[in-house]
């Protein structure tokens, strides 16, 4: 699909993906991840308040743990 045929949402996603990849290559994926997590935490605190933000952060941490250490799947 060419850029001209993409919806606004698809273009935004492409822009964010390209920008994130470019920044990660320049500063390192770990540093970028730390910065993004910090920004997301601050946004959650500002929008939802500290208590809800803490719950969201715990849920995100569990999700990240599951991605980093997936449970082995049974072979059928």
Biggest β-sheet strands, sense, barrel: none
The shape, in one word, is: extended
Number of helices: 3
| Quantity of strands, as a count | 0
Outline the low-pLDDT stretches. Answer: none
| DSSP strand content | under 5%
Secondary structural class: mainly alpha
Output mean pLDDT: 85
Rg from C-alpha positions? 17 Å
What does this structure look like?
This protein has 76 residues and is mainly alpha-helical. The chain is 78% helix and 0% strand. α2 packs antiparallel against α3. The longest helix has 20 residues. The termini are far apart.
Provide a concise account of the structure shown:
This protein has helices at residues 8-27, 29-48, 50-68. It is mainly alpha-helical and 76 residues long.
Which labels suit this protein?
mainly alpha
List the helices and strands and how they pair.
Layout: H1 8-27, H2 29-48, H3 50-68
Helix pairs in contact: 1-2, 2-3
């Amino acid at each position: 699909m060419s850029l001209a045929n993409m919806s606004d949402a698809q273009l935004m996603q492409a822009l964010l993906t390209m920008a994130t990849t470019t920044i990660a290559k320049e500063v390192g994926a770990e540093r970028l991840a730390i910065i993004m997590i910090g920004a997301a935490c601050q946004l959650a605190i500002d929008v939802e308040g500290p208590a809800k933000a803490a719950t969201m952060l715990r849920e995100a941490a569990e999700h990240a743990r599951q991605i980093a250490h997936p449970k082995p799947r049974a072979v059928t």
